[in-house]
Design goal:
12 helices, globular
Length: 271
């Protein structure tokens, strides 16, 4: 892998991880076009770069959640109230949203097979395009992350589980689900992105097991470094873009892109 290809993988990962157009679908397409793919170790590094981007963009929220995690056991033992009841509530909701992902482990082989199917990815992109159109229609909620219910959290978690399929955008799917459940736009975006943090860590942890068996190619350290830098910077910019576009109720502009990309994949499959 060249430095330029590493940078390209970083660009695609950084932007599509947060723009509602499916990072996994784009990386699969890039692998097909480039006749190369990001190895497991590089994939882990790219995920960690986008993890850092979220932490920086939502640093105040991340710090408040970390504080609630650290203080949970001492506060419970001493029967103290939460330091911040809204973020403690949000922590509980995130745990509920993450539970459905456990089922993904049993379907990993089927999910991996989709990465090599332009037709399947194209169909999944059509699903994403539909979700984004719906997202703009369900954008009048007033709930906050402090008032969302357990039902809301489970619905968002189930949608996130389905979004493991390449071509279905995780951010787009969870954002649409949050809006459908009645969350205000700003809170829906916040919850969707903060929910990505444990999801990214879980995905990286699963890939670490494969890296242990395959090893690391030290000759690729330069492409790795460039790819991570590009992924982190573009990921941060992508988060800002989604926050702005969602606030203005214009998420459907991404649906046109997803639909066009799906048509291209259908054409490549047929011809």
């Amino acid at each position: 892998m060249s430095i330029w290809l590493g940078a390209l993988f970083g660009l695609v990962q950084g932007l599509t991880e947060f723009l509602p157009v499916s990072s996994s679908g784009h990386l699969a397409i890039l692998s097909m076009l480039a006749l190369d793919s990001a190895d497991m170790f590089f994939s882990i590094l790219l995920h960690l770069a986008t993890f850092v981007a979220v932490c920086i963009a939502f640093r105040k929220d991340v710090w408040a959640l970390v504080r609630e995690v650290v203080c949970f056991i001492p506060d419970t033992i001493q029967k103290k109230p939460p330091r911040d009841k809204d973020y403690r509530h949000m922590l509980y909701m995130m745990i509920l949203s993450l539970l459905p992902l456990v089922a993904v482990v049993f379907f990993q082989d089927q999910i991996d097979a989709i990465f090599n199917s332009p037709l399947a990815i194209g169909l999944a992109l059509c699903v994403t395009a539909t979700l984004l159109v719906l997202a703009d229609r369900f954008g009048n909620g007033t709930k906050t992350v402090g008032t969302m219910t357990a039902r809301d959290a489970i619905v968002i978690g189930l949608v996130q589980m389905v979004a493991i399929i390449p071509g279905i955008s995780r951010s787009g799917a969870t954002l649409t689900a949050a809006l459908f459940c009645g969350l205000a736009r700003e809170d829906a975006v916040k919850y969707s992105f903060l929910l990505s943090l444990p999801t990214i860590v879980a995905a990286a942890a699963l890939e670490v097991l494969d890296v242990i068996g395959t090893g690391i190619d030290t000759a690729l350290l330069a492409p790795y470094a460039v790819g991570c830098l590009v992924a982190g910077v573009t990921g941060y910019l992508g988060i800002g873009m989604v926050r702005m576009i969602s606030k203005n109720g214009k998420l459907k502009i991404f649906s046109f892109y997803c639909a066009a990309l799906a048509l291209g994949l259908f054409a490549s499959y047929l011809f």
